[in-house]
Design a protein that fits this description.
This protein is α+β, with helices and mostly antiparallel strands and about 350 residues long. The chain has a domain at about 115-355: Deoxyribonuclease I, Chain A. The protein has helices at about 1-30, 45-85, 130-140, 155-165, 220-245, 280-285, 290-295; strands spanning about 100, 115-125, 150-155, 170, 175-180, 185, 190-195, 200-210, 250-255, 290, 310, 315, 320-325, 325-335, 345-355. The protein has a seven-stranded mixed β-sheet with strand order 1-4-5-3-2-15-14. It has a six-stranded mixed β-sheet with strand order 6-7-8-9-13-10. A two-stranded antiparallel ribbon has the order 11-12. The radius of gyration is 47 Å and the shape is elongated.
Length: about 350
């Protein structure tokens, strides 16, 4: 009996399970509902990142532009300051104010204070305008010489053009220009003072007294001497105004149209020489200035120096160095241009001094 009951229970269970499973699966599926696809708002994170990146790049560009602008302004100010320091010559020489101090190098060479020696050159460029090629030829002939000072005489155009070509510090005065590499102390319209060492100052000037636009072709020696004597009054006044500003130790170059009385000996093969005295050289000798070339050479006949032809005279010295308070060591002429082309010969006067 118990077996029958057990069998009945098993059969009943087998009948009920399929129906339950069918209900569960079928009914369950009917009750499962899937959400319909909905539009979800996008965050656009990449776009936000791109905008932030662009903003950073724009800020960086602005910063770099600001820095470039600041640097450009700084460069402009530096260039302005440099130009002010250099103090270039004006293109219009009518606007030139004297003294004009040209400082491309701002050099301040200090010489030996215990034994102070220095070397100078007189460069006479006359009043006829020189070409750039001619000035370059002259400069190439002297650029390797150790010169503390170069005195330039002649027209203002020649003086300035050579100073710019040489690229050295220069001071242009009323009647000449001085190129230098020592320390400039002060300058006036007529002279400039330099410090060779701590306690050694030297006053310099460069003076051109050349006669402009004057025909001398038909003059004899007496007439030429008379002309120089007539002009000497104003020229001596000009010299006096310059020389009264020179200190105890001083040196100046002079380009003149007058020979020197010390050269004018009658014991000479030059037949045009008469018994004459020349006012400018006599005036300077009376003031105690020493003619460097004449002091350092034995004879005016055997050592005539730079000689030029002007009017009725030939083979006469017309370019000089005069000093006071210095020891003249040596001096000599220096051919700078015209050895191959005699149409425009140029000779310099080079000299050495000791500052006692």
């Amino acid at each position: 009996m118990r077996k029958l009951n057990l069998l009945a229970i098993v059969l009943l269970t087998l009948l009920i399970l399929p129906s339950c499973a069918t209900y569960t699966i079928g009914k369950g599926l009917s009750h499962i509902s899937l959400q319909e696809e909905q539009t979800v708002p996008l965050t656009k994170y990449k776009d936000i990142q791109d905008k932030e990146l662009l903003a950073k790049q724009e800020a960086q560009r602005k910063y770099e532009d600001e820095q470039k602008l600041k640097q450009n302004l700084k460069d402009i100010n530096t260039a302005i300051e440099k130009k002010a320091e250099v103090n270039p010559y004006p293109l219009d020489l009518n606007k030139l104010q004297l003294p004009h101090i040209y400082r491309p190098l701002n050099s301040k060479q200090v010489l030996n204070p215990d034994f102070t020696s220095f070397q100078v050159l007189v460069l006479p460029l006359d009043n006829e305008t020189r070409s750039t090629e001619n000035l370059a030829l002259i400069y190439n002939g002297i650029k390797d010489i150790d010169l503390q000072f170069i005195f330039i005489t002649g027209s203002i155009e020649n003086q300035i053009n050579f100073a710019k070509l040489a690229g050295r510090d220069a001071v242009t005065l009323d009647k000449g220009t001085v190129l230098f590499n020592t320390e400039l102390n002060e300058a006036t319209t007529s002279s400039a003072s330099f410090l060779l060492s701590d306690k050694k100052a030297l006053t310099l000037s460069s003076i051109s007294l050349l006669i402009d636009n004057l025909s001398l072709e038909n003059l004899d020696v007496e007439s030429y001497h008379k002309l120089c004597t007539e002009l000497s009054g104003k020229r001596i006044d000009s010299l006096t105004a310059i020389l009264e500003n020179l200190e105890e130790k001083s040196l100046f170059a002079l380009s003149d149209d007058e020979p020197s009385t010390s050269d004018w000996t009658l014991f000479t093969p030059y037949e045009y020489r008469k018994e004459l005295a020349w006012p400018i050289s006599d005036f300077l000798a009376n003031l105690g200035f020493r003619d460097t070339y004449r002091v350092t050479h034995f004879s005016e006949e055997t050592d005539s120096g730079i000689t030029q032809e002007i009017g009725p005279i030939t083979k006469e010295r017309l370019d000089y160095l005069f000093s006071k308070g210095l020891m003249e060591v040596s001096s000599s002429t220096l051919a700078l241009a015209g050895l191959t082309d005699e149409s425009n010969p140029t000779f310099g006067l080079i000299a050495n001094y000791i500052y006692p």
